[in-house]
Please model this.
Amino acid sequence: MELDTSHSLYYPEDYQAFLSRIDQLSTESPAQWGTMDAAQMLAHCAEIQEVSNGKELTGTPFIVKLFKGMIRKMVVGDKPFPKNSKTHPQYIQTEECDFETEKARLLVALEAFVEAENSSGRPHPMFGTITHDEKGWSAYKHINHRLTQFGV
Model:
């Protein structure tokens, strides 16, 4: 399994580029695929980032626990996420979300992630111990996937 280290949420240039791309989003930004609107996508990203930052992950189905090794490889691997792929139940957004609230929530979560770069942190609630490079890359990969989904 190859780990792409050319990008990382820990790299200042990648972090700043995400802030700029997030700022280009609006409530009118159309999804290129999937069912989430822009506010729901921001809530989805914020929830995932908050779990990465230490928030509890709850409601993991047994089948997901069985396949966590394969899922981990997909998350930290260099292949792009497939469009419309399944996600953990905690990350699913079906309710109406407030765009500005969720945008602010994501920005706070991203900042906390970057500021905690050199802290030991706790193991990921599903994947266990992941390396610094895997954590930075997987955060970059997911957010890039979602921002691309909304054309920014």
User: Anything to note?
Assistant: Residues 74 and 106 are 23 Å apart (CA to CA).
